[in-house]
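Lab notebook, bench 4. Still working through the backlog of constructs that have no structural model yet. Next entry is a single chain of 286 residues. Request: give me the structure tokens for it.
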Amino acid sequence: MKPKPNILEILRDLNFSEYEAKAYVTLLESSPLSGYAVSLNSGVPRSKIYEVLSGMVNRGDIMVSQENTPLYVPLPPHELIAQRKRKAEQIFNVAQESLEQYTASFQNRENIWNISGYEAIINRINEGVKGAKHRILLEIWKEDAEVFRDALEQVAQQGIEVIIVAYGELNFDFATVYRHDMSEEITSEIGGRWIVLSVDDREVVAGILSLGDDSRAAWTLHPGLVMPITEVIIHDIYIMEILYEFREQLEAKFGPNLIHLRNKFAMGPNGKGYYVPLTEKSIKRV
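Model written out:
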């Protein structure tokens, strides 16, 4: 046998306080009643009953007569539910309008948003990938790429171009993958694994992904950042294409994996680099 629902709990779910729920049920069982009778039959303290009843009258849950001794009757249940539905719909409409205003601010192309922590960065990148309409450019380490496989494959199946610059061997047959040289050395140099995403040349996420809760990234639609960050990925692709065609000649001039160029233009104070320059012997050939 199905258990009988607890009417007081149901009313509390409809935003009644405990005292209000008891008073309303009492009036459903027998009305009209004076405030004193409602208190007596419901168990609501006499010191509280008129405050409770007044609030319910103002809210429209019950009605009161204009007599020397006011009498109270409940709003019929079907009218109460209809009233609650109308109010809830009004609240949802106002909430939607307000939240959409915040969303517009959130997606303002002038803003740059900081993202902290591995999971938050993963979620933001997945949302960016799912929202792609034309093209995804991604620079990523093989250790992190599997997390995004499903989302990337899904948009690729929808006809969206997916191009990946991979640090390490990556077998994503649904994407165009360029393997970047020296992934292990670069990881050692910068102390972590970065990730760079460009969606439709209008949205980018860039940051360090390998530091757990200390991972940090930035997300923006600001064209002053989207353009150069997207171009960084594209220029890496240029270099990969050129190396595929002319590796022997270029390495004869600039060393294995172009290491002389890398050391010459290392990041760091005064261009001297944050790390000890690599040597040809230290490079793992690919």
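Notes after review: The chain has eleven helices and ten strands. Residues 268-286 have pLDDT under 50 and may be disordered. Flag for follow-up if needed.
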